[in-house]
Amino acid sequence: MLTNPTIDGLRELKLDVMATSLQEQRTSATYDALPFEERLGLLVDQEILERKNRRLRRLLSLAKLRTNAVIENIDFKTSRGLKRSMVLSLGESHWVNEHHNVVVVGATGVGKTYLACALANSAIRHGHSALYLRAPRLFEELSIARVDGRLPKLMASYARVEILVIDDLFLRPLDVKQASDFLEIIEDRHQLRSTIVASQLPVADWHAAISDETIADAILDRLLHNAHRIDLSGESLRRNDSFVNKEQPAQSETSV
After folding, report:
1. Which residues of 4-42 are buried (b: 16+ CB within 10 A; e: fewer)?
2. Where are the beta strands (DSSP E) in 19-129?
3. Residue-range domain boundaries for the chain
4. Is residue 33 very low, low, confident or very high in pLDDT (cuts 50, 70, 90)?
5. Homologous superfamily of 64-255
6. What is the mean pLDDT of residues 226-231?
7. pLDDT tens digits, residue range 176-227?
8. Three-state SS for 130?
9. CA 254 to chain centre
10. At residue 12, does pLDDT exceed 60?
11. Which residues is 167 bridged to in the sheet?
């Protein structure tokens, strides 16, 4: 007799999954033999699971990752200097809790973007927020934001994200303004948030790619001192595109 008011009350409390599950319990004999506490526990578990899944979908959407990459699909068989133990350890995302950075370098096509996105995806699945940005568009957006007055707000939004993924850094050398902006981004995150950087340029050449030596020193000091570095080598994986199964739930590494 009280079931309908209870369901209405659950929906009013925004416990829609519990309400739907309670209706299912009423119409299925499967639950009849279960004691009250077990049936209640099932309702609570389903509500919690749905909320976690909803948050995961939201975080993945906000991250705007370049590819639907996952740790489970990384190719460890191809020889390119990628250590399985290191990647799987990073996949646990403890480095995010410790506010460490990850630096991935290597030639075009060796899987930098895929690996960066896979690590970000794993961190999201562990409950962290992330945002993917390509460096050329990042600096373009910062330039536009400076003109229209959005720069402080934009910088603040970058500072709040737990993992900032910056891809294709140093495709071109940074001028003084770009270097200054990048330093502000890294400074806001230093020992507070984590950053993943992917670049074709070897780390040894980064200093020369920043026009101001003083700013370069500051950027590299903050970015690299607690960074987990992955140097990829070998031939491009994209040559295997034709063999990728396009119906896989997550992209194969050879497709990016």
Report:
1. eeebeebeeeebebbbbbbeebeeeeeeeeeeeeeeeeb
2. 101-105
3. 3-60, 64-255
4. confident
5. P-loop containing nucleotide triphosphate hydrolases (3.40.50.300)
6. 96
7. 999 999 999 999 999 999 999 999 999 999 999 999 999 999 999 999 999 9
8. strand
9. 19
10. yes
11. 134
